[in-house]
TrEMBL record:
Pfam family, one: LRR_At5g56370
InterPro entries xref list: F-box-like_dom_sf, F-box_AtFBL13-like, F-box_dom, FBD, FBL13/AtMIF1-like, LRR_dom_sf, LRR_FXL15/At3g58940/PEG3-like
Source organism per UniProt: Thlaspi arvense (Field penny-cress)
Protein name as catalogued: F-box domain-containing protein
Superkingdom of origin organism: Eukaryota
Length: 459
C-alpha cells in the first residue's frame, strides 16, 4: 500500500510539472507563440488548435504557411485544408507562403490556387513559392499577384504569364524565379521584368523552344541565371535568341543549348562571375558548323559582352566552340579574368595552351578533364610537344587545381609536367589522387619546377 501511495504521489507530481510547463508556454504572448508555430509544418501548427481554448485560434497568426499536397490523403482534403488556412476571416498578415500543388489539377480546379494567392496578397505577402510538377497544364495566377506592393521574393513554376498589355507593378520585388513559365508573346517577359524597379536576382528556366526573341532589360539586376533545355529535337530555325541589357550585372549563368544567339549589352562594370554552357545552336557540333559565316556572327556578337569577366566557368562544348571560332577570327582577350574553371574533353587538350593565351592575367586555373585513359598515343604526344607557353604562365598564374582525380596515366603526368616546368610564379599545384591508380610519387616530386616557391599538394 505504501508503495502504491508513493507511486501515486510521483504520478501527481509529474502531472503537475507537465501542467506547469504547458501553462508556461500558454502564458507567452501571442506573437511569440505564433513565431514558434511558424517553425512547424503548417498542418502540425493547425493541429495545435485542439489543445485548449487558449490555442484554438493562435495558428491563425502564423506568418509562414507551407502547404504540400503530398501530405494529404487526396485532393479534396488538400483543398478543404487550404480554404481553412486562407479563410477570409483571418485577420493576420501572411509573410511567406509555399505551395506544392498536385499533378492532376486542371483549369476548373485551379481557381482554388488563385483564391489562396489572392488572399495572401491581400494580407501583405512578402515571399511566395508555388511549386508544381511538369504537366501539360499551365497554372493561372490572379492578376493581383502582379501588382503586389509588398512582394520581395517570387518563385513560380509551370505558370502562364498574363498578356503583356496588362499593368504590372512589383515595386519591392528583389528576387524572381520563373521556372517553366509560358510567355504569351515576345513582350511579356520584358514587361514583367521592367515592372520590378529594384529587382536584383532573376532566374529564367524555359519549358520549351519559343519562336520569339526574349529580352531581359533591367537597371537594377545584379544576378541572372538563364536555362533553356528543350525536350524536343533541335530545330535551328525555330529557336529564338536572347538579349540581356542589364548594366549592373555582376553574376551571369547561362545553360543554353537551344538559343541561336545570346547578346549581353551595355555593361557598366566587370562581370564578377560567369558560368557558361552555350553552343549558339550548333548541334550536332562539328568544325564546319562553326566556319559558316552566319554562325560565326552569333559567336562574335556574344563575346564582347563577356570579355571583362573576372571569374569564368566554362564547359567542354563551349570551350570547343570558342576554340574553333578562333581558328577563323581574332582570338578574344579576357584581360580581366583572374580565375578560370574549365571542363575539357581529352581530345581537346591540345587546344588548352592556345585558349589560355586569351587569359594573360589569369591567377587561378581549375581543370576538369574527361577520362585520360581514352587518350591515344598521338594525343599524348601533342601534350608533351606543346610548342607555346601562355603569357599567364610567365607572369600571373599562381594556383592550378586538377579536380579530376588522376591515376598515373602517361598523359596525366605529361600535363602536370607541362605546368610545373613552365609556370614561373606558380605557388600551388593541387592534384586529386585516385587511390586505385599507380602514381610514381617519387618521380612526380622530382619534376623540375619553373617556380622556386611552387608546392605540389596531393589530396
Amino acid at each position: 500500500m505504501m508503495f502504491g501511495r508513493g507511486e501515486s504521489k510521483q504520478s501527481c507530481s509529474r502531472g503537475l510539472s507537465q501542467r506547469l510547463k504547458e501553462d508556461m508556454i500558454s502564458s507567452l504572448p501571442d506573437p511569440l507563440i505564433s513565431q514558434i508555430l511558424s517553425h512547424l509544418p503548417t498542418k502540425e501548427a493547425v493541429c495545435t488548435s485542439v489543445l485548449s481554448t487558449r490555442w484554438k485560434s493562435l495558428w491563425l497568426w502564423v506568418p509562414e504557411l507551407d502547404l504540400d499536397f503530398y501530405q494529404f490523403p487526396d485532393f479534396n482534403a488538400f483543398v478543404s485544408f487550404g480554404h481553412r488556412v486562407f479563410d477570409s476571416n483571418r485577420v493576420s498578415f501572411i509573410r511567406k507562403v509555399k505551395l506544392d500543388v498536385e499533378d492532376g489539377v486542371n483549369a476548373d480546379e485551379s481557381y482554388n490556387l488563385k483564391s489562396w494567392i489572392d488572399s495572401a496578397v491581400n494580407r501583405k505577402i512578402q515571399h511566395l513559392d508555388v511549386r508544381s510538377p511538369e504537366v501539360d497544364y499551365f497554372y493561372q495566377m490572379p492578376i493581383s499577384l502582379y501588382i503586389c506592393e509588398t512582394l520581395v521574393f517570387l518563385k513560380i513554376q509551370w505558370v502562364s504569364l498574363p498578356d503583356a498589355e496588362l499593368f504590372f507593378s512589383l515595386p519591392c520585388l528583389k528576387t524572381m524565379h520563373l521556372i517553366k513559365v509560358q510567355y504569351p508573346n515576345e513582350a511579356a517577359l520584358e514587361t514583367l521584368v521592367s515592372s520590378c524597379p529594384v529587382l536584383e536576382e532573376l532566374e529564367i528556366s524555359l519549358a520549351r523552344n519559343d519562336a520569339e526573341l526574349l529580352r531581359v532589360q533591367s537597371r537594377s539586376l545584379k544576378s541572372l541565371t538563364f536555362i533553356r533545355v528543350s525536350p524536343f529535337q533541335f530545330q535551328s530555325d525555330s529557336v529564338s535568341g536572347v538579349v540581356v541589357d542589364a548594366p549592373l550585372l555582376r553574376f551571369l549563368s547561362i545553360y543554353d543549348y537551344e538559343s541561336d544567339s545570346f547578346h549581353v549589352n551595355n555593361l557598366e562594370s566587370n562581370i564578377a562571375k560567369l558560368e557558361i554552357v552555350v553552343n549558339f545552336g550548333l548541334e550536332p557540333f562539328d568544325e564546319a558548323s562553326v566556319s559558316a559565316r552566319r554562325r560565326r556572327c552569333r559567336i562574335r556578337s556574344f563575346l564582347p559582352g563577356i570579355l571583362r569577366v573576372r571569374d569564368m566557368k566554362i564547359d567542354a562544348g563551349t570551350f570547343k566552340v570558342i576554340h574553333e571560332y578562333t581558328k577563323l577570327e581574332p582570338r578574344p582577350q579576357f584581360r580581366c579574368m583572374s580565375r578560370l574553371f574549365v571542363t575539357i574533353c581529352v581530345s581537346d587538350l591540345k587546344c588548352l595552351p592556345t585558349f589560355l593565351e586569351s587569359c594573360p592575367n589569369l591567377k587561378s586555373l581549375v581543370l576538369a578533364i574527361d577520362d585520360y585513359g581514352e587518350m591515344s598515343c598521338e594525343e599524348m604526344d601533342q601534350i608533351s610537344g606543346y610548342s607555346s607557353v601562355p603569357e599567364c604562365f610567365l607572369q600571373s598564374l599562381e594556383f592550378v587545381d586538377f579536380v579530376t582525380p588522376i591515376s598515373g596515366y602517361a598523359a596525366e603526368m605529361k600535363l602536370v609536367k607541362y605546368f610545373l616546368e613552365n609556370s614561373a610564379v606558380l605557388k600551388t599545384l593541387t592534384l586529386h589522387v585516385n587511390h586505385d591508380g599507380s602514381i610514381d610519387y617519387e618521380k612526380l616530386l622530382k619534376i623540375p619546377r619553373g617556380s622556386s616557391t611552387c608546392q605540389v599538394v596531393l589530396i
